[in-house]
Design goal:
The structure is a homopentamer of 252-residue chains. Chain A has 252 residues and is an alpha/beta fold. Helices cover 42% and strands 17% of the residues of chain A. Chain A has an 8-stranded parallel beta barrel with strand order 1-2-3-6-7-8-9-10, surrounded by 5 helices. A two-stranded antiparallel ribbon of chain A has the order 4-5. The A-B interface holds A 21, 23-24, 27-29, 31, 33, 36-38, 56-59, 61-64, 80-82, 84-87, 90-96, 98-99, 102-103 and B 1, 114-117, 119-121, 123-124, 126-128, 131, 134, 146, 148-151, 154, 158-159, 161-162, 164-172, 188, 191-192, 194-196.
């Protein structure tokens, strides 16, 4: 078992990812005339010095030359779903590890809706991906989002820490989760995740100040960084904002 | 990853497909004594200068010599269902990529009922087809039809744009969808689909004038063309009508 | 793609099959002391000059020498079920194409309950069988029986024509279906099935006169023949009756 | 297709099997301090001259040397379940054909709960086992137990005959079923099963006299023998009783 | 079939395992600042002379060097679930036998919730693991926990004995189960399990005295040992306590 080099998408253990898988998850409602275009995103990723850009395989394939030219490391999401379907959440694998590699990915991502009736199906699929991806030298990132009937009435604090620990137990290099905006809780989550790095999901668009303050909290609490989408590519000056985030995370 | 040449079934990025998979989807109720016969369809496809004819594998096999002789490019639908079954829609793969190739197909098609309880199953099947078909040089067309419990109460505009974007995200070269008859909405849909081409489904038989005016709108809004069945092969003079459509789409 | 020779179980496009898969579908209730014995059936098939005899794999294996000696072509049903199970109908594959070949089959059969909740599962299984069986030179026969919640309230005429068309679309060489006893409807069904041959299921035991008159109607309406069981092997003189049927179908 | 030699576990077409798969099906409630120990069973099987002993793979593996030393032919049950689970009955494969062979089995067994909602799953699994086991020269025994929602209100006579016929149709060499204690019905069942041998399940412990009289009836009605467990290994002198049974079945 | 050497994780048939798979099953709620860290656990396992430490694959991979250095034999749990999901219990395989081997495991573990609606799925998965793991020389441990709708109203005594027997029947080398705190019942369970060793699950944290007295009872009743987690790593002096346990189990 050779060790995977997590610094393919991190810088000295810290990370700043540009997420752009919302087109499948929510449809184009999040987009405007500019950011509906993947070229715009690739440009931000490059000029904003992101550690990786997150795409579904379709965009990775159709804009492959542009991505390669940008030299931004590519993380391909291997599962996905629409929000048109109702009922207990499930997200099935829609891209193989081999296809991701052939598209130039150095990392793969996968979402598990912990607590869903279909949790076992997602855990099983992830486990096979983890094994294959690690064997082939890819960094493995898991999105753990507690959701569905099972988690009703449980505290955000407990669910966040559980998500972090789950990432470690199932073999992810990086676990991406939602931050409950309590530094102490995040600190415990980071501890629970052990050698697995904790990265925070960006969530809906907020004010710039609030966003930057949250990034500071995350880093202060020991988080490894953020995976941000809307807060960057919906902002007026994405590159400028990215630089501010970069400064917080990497100190320069 | 070699690039697939979409012009196997397009002419400079525009397309006019003759759809004839209604026999499985609806039974022969759409047919009369003439158009019940695949020979009649192949003849229209040839003389009407269609970019491709769309068949299920059974017709592609039983009328294989006639299709080859016509030189019309062949697009085989890889999944299908009857309308006898009720409940949440699902359409399973009933033809392999290899069988399609052995029958002479240069393109394959697949329907996803987005929003159905079974959406994850169809997305998973499509994803494997996309990978294999692209590896083997076939053009990949996805029909995205939002349907089922999940989409109740959502606007046609939003669903159309979502369908277009979904086609891009999951790796189709061409996405086929229903037009809500609003040019501005279609224009946004085309933008959302990025480098994936948008082709409009023909739908039920309407008057010739109305049909031609719709084709004009589609092209005007940036659509790549149409996949039409009943409006052509149920018309009095299918070849004549096809020429009029051809003129709108290709300007000659 | 080499063409399969349908005349392995037809004579100049006409067919007369002896069906004996009732033991699994209904149990031995259809049988008496004579016809419970497969030897009796094999003898009728031979002396009655049937184009093929239809068995499940168990009988094909245990009476293999007798079948081979009779020289009657063998059609093995690849799926089956009991009538003990209730609920939406489903019939799963219980014999592989390779096992059928090793037992000496020149043709394979498969039932699809169109309209059942489980239609997609049966269509998927059939599609794989069709591909493999055709590749290996076997004639492919599909039983299409609309049944289950989905078909309530639909006319027999429409369902029969749909069954015929479905046989063509999904790639069967021969489609076996129930006759609604209306020649005009059958004629339309035959047309809808195109190059796929239409064979009528025998159904429950009726009077000899009525049975022979029905066979005449079937042939008159363009049907390719019949697959008959109980009306033959429950009759007093099966071989004599078979000769009368033979005369109607083949004119001698 | 080479013929399997059923006399690996029969003597001139008659059989006496010692069943000991109750530990999984019912838990140890059937056992006492003596018969809880597989050594005790192996000893009875040997000294009672049984044609085969029936074990799950776990016992076959842990007591493998003892079984081999006894020279009693080994029949391994390939599926099984506990009675802790409620709902429609299903018994999944838990031992592969290859593992059974590696443990020294010359025959394999499989239970189908005909009429259960899950009948199709069990029939499909059995069909693959039958194909592989026969190819590798093993005798194939099927337990057919009509059970579940589907069989309510049907007569024991009809279900017993159906079970026998089903065994023949799906390719078993031997079908094991429950006897309804009517010789005429069993005689018809044996006829319905054709060349497939009918063996009767022992059932719960009864008085010795009643048990022996039942064995006589079974043989008298044409049955091939019995698969008995509790009536032997719960009796005071299992070997003595086995000799009496042996005398009835084999005449010595 | 070569015999697996169970003493890879036992000492003359007795065992003392340190369980640490609670992070996935319950989240980090069981942990404090010390024992949340796998290093702390590995240290206890080494200094406390445990026969094996039980991890999920994620911890086995991220702390692989530390584990190897400790020389404590590694048992990897191959399935797992969170307690966020509600409904009938199911635990799917999330680590392959090959991955476990590549991580240095000499034994694998698997949980079956007997009585659950999903019991057949877990039994089927376990059966494949058992076959592969034994072929590759690993010790196979099964956790059998009767749970779900099916077991309501059944006595703990009966369920414990059933669990033990089930372990034997399905081929485990060691069965891990819950002790009902009745020595006579455990004695019968051990007898029912035959050559399969019975190890008792530690359960929730209790007082040290009570815990040690329970260990004595287990050994006295013929149990092979314990798999303990919280009672050790939540205690004030885990190593000291481990030595006391060691003395009871191994006499020194």
């Amino acid at each position: 078992m050779k060790k995977v080099n997590v610094n393919k998408i991190m810088t000295r253990g810290k990370a700043m990812f540009l997420a752009y898988d919302q087109g499948l998850e929510h449809g184009p409602v999040d987009f405007n005339d500019k950011n509906v275009d993947p070229h715009y995103i690739i440009d931000i990723a490059k000029r904003g010095k992101f550690n990786a850009v997150i795409f579904q395989k379709g965009i990775a394939e159709k804009y492959n030359e542009e991505i390669k030219k940008s030299k931004v490391p590519l993380l391909i999401k291997l599962n996905g779903k629409t929000n048109m379907r109702k009922g207990e959440p499930i997200s099935k694998q829609i891209c193989s590890v081999d296809e991701a590699i052939s598209l130039g990915a150095v990392a793969v991502g996968f979402t598990i809706y912990a607590g869903s009736e279909f949790e076992p199906i997602m855990m099983r699929e992830f486990s096979k991906i983890e094994e294959e991806a690690h064997k082939k030298g890819l960094v493995v990132v898991v999105w753990i989002y507690p959701r569905g009937k099972g988690v009703k009435g449980r505290s955000e604090k407990e669910l966040m820490a559980y998500a972090g620990r789950m990432g470690l137990e199932i073999g992810a290099d990086i676990v991406k989760l939602h931050y409950n905006r309590n530094k102490k809780d995040l600190s415990w989550t980071v501890k629970s995740a052990g050698k697995t790095k904790v990265v925070i999901a960006g969530g809906v668009k907020t004010g710039e100040k609030e966003f930057l303050s949250e990034v500071k909290d995350i880093i202060g609490a020991g988080g490894a960084g953020i995976a941000v989408g809307r807060n960057i590519w919906k902002s007026k000056d994405p590159v400028e904002l990215s630089k501010k985030v970069h400064k917080i995370i990497f100190g320069k």
